[in-house]
Give the backbone structure.
Amino acid sequence: MTNELSPKFNPTEVEAGRYEKWLEADVFKPSGNPDAEPYSIVIPPPNVTGKLHLGHAWDTTLQDIIIRQKRMQGFDTLWLPGMDHAGIATQAKVAARLAEDGILPQDLGREKFLDKVWEWKDEYATTIKEQWGKMGISVDYSRERFTLDEGLSQAVRKVFVQLYNKGWIYRGEKLINWDPKAMTALSDIEVIHKEIDGAFYHITYQIEGSDEFVEIATTRPETFLGDTAVIVNEKDERYKHLVGKNVILPIINRVIPILTDDHADMEKGTGVVKITPAHDPNDFEVAMRHDLPMINMMNNDGTINENGGKYEGLDRFEARKQIVADLKELGQLVDIKPVRHEVGHSERTGVVVEPRLSTQWFVKMDELAKNAIANQTTEDAVEFYPPRFNDTFMQWMENVHDWVISRQLWWGHQIPAWYNEAGEMYVGEEAPEGEGWTQDADVLDTWFSSALWPFSTMGWPDENSADFKRYFPTSTLVTGYDIIFFWVSRMIFQSLEFTGKSPFHNVLIHGLIRDEEGRKMSKSLGNGIDPMDVIEKYGADALRWFLSNGSAPGQDVRFSYDKMDAAWNFINKIWNISRYILMNAEDVSADSVSSALTKVANKTAGNVTDRWILTRLNDTARRVTEQMDKFEFGVAGHILYNFIWDEFANWYLELTKEVMFGEDEAEKDITRAVLLHVLDQVLRLLHPIMPFFTEEIFEKIPNTSGSIVVAEYPKVRPEFNDDKASEGVAMLIELITAVRNIRAEVNTPLSKAVPMLIKSEHADFLNAVSPYISRFTNPSELTIAKDLAVPEQAMSAVITGAELYLPLAGLINIEEEIARLEKELAKWQKELDLVNKKLGNERFVANAKAEVVQKEKDKLADYQEKFDTVKARIAELKEN
């Protein structure tokens, strides 16, 4: 195998075939090491309605980062993949495809239609797995699950029957949210409230047997077809004389009573409220209190039914238009006032939802919610990241309503309830014996089966399943804040009920991906981004870097092609420095690297820059690991970026050229070894985030073996720490930077040699590294001493531990130099003020770690020294 890299980084070439090689090598499967600590994740299952979107790419990227790092750290890792059947969405997609050929689901019947849906599932599941491969997610496909697998279906039936037997699942007639397009019930959280333009229609109802009228206002005039009463407040003097009488509904001429109820607000509108129990949740409660009839005036598809008189068969919105016109003709339409108000829309189909009386299956939520709330005060509590989302979860659980779980679909888990002609009902995991039983035609809400996902995928209800015993509860869930209610909460209360444990230890919540203008991505705006298109242009590694570094936990992120360009440039930078290192290390062996590193650690070989970069590597590994453990991937990425780009590439590689272009072969061997070691460790640190190109480079490092997927993750090696070297090279870098800045200010290019004087208590060290100073600053004369005469006309800079002077007579203006130094003085004053404020805060000093407080004190001393030196230099210039 050659250790040469292509001259140009090409993500398509690097990533081609790499994923298949990983799968062939079985590197994604659990180690099976019984002594290793287990770490498990179950993937948030994408539904089989189409391609992956950026939000799911975000989920999978963050989870893959976690599992790859844990695998490298020696954990026995399981990442279990799977997909969700997504009842409403999938059935709608298949129905739409059939409609293109003029076929309705009813034409096929249930069984043949389901055959078509299974064909769809197989097609799109294949597509999703291909996209997972392009993303590089390291799942164990031998354990892949689907929510309609027989094992998961068994778990669903068991849960349903147990909850039913406890009285926590029941069938009843209640007001529910109805989707007229999908023709199914929806739960509360499947309804999205959007602001739309509407109107208040003011209508008069005539008092029976008189010429008197009362006025009501409604945004849905068509619902008067289902009115069964009007109410007023018993304290409302305006209407006391009408209580007990009746009103006549216009057009249909049905008589309904006038009642009193506190729901009527005397201060709101006319104080008279129409009651439509079968189509309004508040009216339903009023009807229950007064034992009113409930008239459903709408068919499943949103058309008016037989209770609508002459409007029967009309679409609800067309009926509204005709009813308004008829009321106007009768003189009973008083006014139409425009209003901007929130209206519920189906989360699945986008149509306006109808509150509608319907017989459905429900889960009683009071006890399940209490258990979930109580659990958050125990050691088994689920840890939310960021913690504020625990409040979101708790608030919803404290205010949750009974959950309508039946859906009027064919695709899904058919409800395990059977009926016979005698009016009997049987609920069980299997069909009842005997003839004459018909299974309930409805299926369960998709989220009912998804709520069992963390444990049903592990083999439950067989609690002796090896995976269930080994990997449940799972370690971490990663998902967006938009499905805390839909999925996270339901997994928690179902897991507590059926396993007695929380389903996972941690929940990492991320935000939404928005477009560059901050808008939510949607089909209507046409601003969606296909992650596969991004991968085709930039590669998966660049997309993963963007997704992991785009924001802090819980925050939204704006997609940006500029940021994608920056991600690609970063990878290209690493590619180029890897080429340089590999080209200079063709004959280096693993033994020689180990021997060289031992010598550097013992200070028997190597120079200060070698010891500096190894110290910085240690610090980087420590800080990155700390941030990854806190799921702060953006912070970890920032630390890695700064180390790789600034310290390793821009400084260490450049500093090594003093050795690599020299004559000392022994010193070159040490530097090559350090370069290879740092490159190796950098690739390992980067691998969880950017797996493809890191593997490509890793396998070309001399004497590496196996895949980086299972290579050991970097650890801090104390023998490499050298504080003196770290401080010394930091001073060297600061000095070189200061010289470059001064040259730029007076337009003196590096090619022009100029004299340089350095006054420092660390003169011995600076003289030892003077070859580096000369290479990077090009002095005509270099004087370094603990004490020296300061030239009158000189540009100056104060760095930590030294004063720098460039006598540039004829190139500087004393007044301009004083002005520059005064700006620098102001900068150091600002830094002093900030540190003094922090150290003056008694709470900070009392509560912060001792090393943190000491670090601030060290800053104070450093800033004060720089301030005093600059101030003295200004005084000297002014005197002269």
About this structure: The chain is about 45% helix and 15% strand.
